[in-house]
Amino acid sequence: MLNQAQSNSLVVETYKRWIDSESNCRKLEREVTNLKNEGNVRSKTKQELSSIRSQVDLLKGQISEAKEVNKSSQASAAAAHEARDKTLQDLETFKLKFGDLEKKLLDAEKRHSAELKEMQTSYDQLLVDHHRLMDDKDEIEKTRDRAIESHKATIDEAKGMLTRYDGEMVEVYAQVSELMLTKQWFLTDGIAWVVKLVHQSPELDKVVADLVSSVNAVGANEGIKQGFQAALNSVRSAEEVPGYDEGAKDALDAAIKAFDDFHISVLGKVADLIDKPLSVIKQRSQLPIVKEDYEA
Q1: DSSP conformational letter for 188
Q2: Please, which domain of life does this record's source organism belong to (predicted)?
Q3: 3-state secondary structure labels for all residues of 13-77
Q4: How many other CB atoms are there within 10 angstroms of residue 224's CB atom?
Q5: Could you report the per-residue pLDDT of 8-35, keeping only the tens digit for each?
Q6: pLDDT of residue 1
Q7: Distance from C-alpha of 267 to C-alpha of 274, rounded to nearest angstrom
């Protein structure tokens, strides 16, 4: 199938050839008109020949009259003879003119016939070329129309694809927005929520309880040892036992309260990564935690 540029070029070329064909047809028509005019000249020549023939007939009549006059009157014989000679001379002159005109007429007819035949042949060939060009023009127009329909179908398909892509983009944008909201929540509230869950989880409570129990057991053992040694040394009160801490109970209460209320300041550093790409967040997570990270 021809593309749009080739179709346009072929239409222009066909149109030019069609214009040339029309011009040649008009030229032939003018030449035929000229031949018709020349035919009028030839008709005029024939009229002249007819007039000459009439004059010849008139001269013949005059000759006959002269002969009659010659028979009827011997007195006018000399005049009649002179008139006859003049008439014969005029007749010969008319015959020469008539022969020349007849020859010219025949030559003109032959020449005009040959030219007309040649022009008719050229006209027939131009007419054939004209019809062929018209057929080519029709085929080119059909090809152009098919190309236009094909382009329209392609454009319609592209519009449909754009419509589908717009819908998909809306859906993708919604998904990206959801992911951004998820990322924002995770970096601001999600991690804190996870830490809170870990802090309140029974597993951590059990680990801490086991740790405290173990610490208490070790402390009790150490206290028994110290108390036993103090008894052997006759210590008068528990406060005199080495390692006794009067503020231990207050320190334990403060530690429990601090454990319940403690704040992880480094989570603020994580929230600062909300607008950063995932690659930056991953890179930051792989860096060691330093003292500055805990500063509020």
Answers
A1: I
A2: Eukaryota
A3: HHHHHHHHHHHHHHHHHHHHHHHHHHHHHHHHHHHHHHHHHHHHHHHHHHHHHHHHHHHHCHHHH
A4: 10
A5: 565 556 556 656 656 665 666 676 566 6
A6: 45
A7: 12
pLDDT for res 25 = 59
The rounded Cα 203 to chain-centroid distance in angstroms is 68
pLDDT tens, position by position, 166-199? 888 888 888 888 788 777 777 777 777 667 666 6
User: pLDDT tens for residues 253-271?
Assistant: 776 776 667 666 666 666 6
Produce one character per residue of 257-281: b if its CB has 16 or more CB atoms within 10 Å, e if not. Answer: eeeeeeeeeeeeebeeeeeeeeeee
| pLDDT < 50 regions, the chain | 1-2, 293-294, 296
Q: How far apart are CA 184 and CA 281, in angstroms?
A: 12
Domains of the chain: 4-166 (1.10.287)
- Report the SS3 class of residue 263: coil
Q: What is the pLDDT of residue 118?
A: 83
- Name the amino acid, one letter, at 268: G
> What gap in Å lies between CA 97 and CA 49, rounded to an integer?
9
Structure-block tokens of residue 241: 């036992």
Give the C-alpha separation, 254 to 260, whole Å.
Answer: 10
Q: Alpha-carbon distance 93 to 87, whole Å?
A: 10
- Cβ atoms of 66 and 83 within 8 Å: the answer is yes
> And the tokens for 21?
């064909």
Query: Among 68, 59, 57, which residue's Cα sits nearest to residue 89?
Result: 59
Q: Which DSSP letter does residue 265 get? A: T
Angle at alpha carbon of residue 132, lines to 127 and 134, rounded to 5° = 95
What is the rounded CA–CA span in Å between residue 296 and residue 293?
8
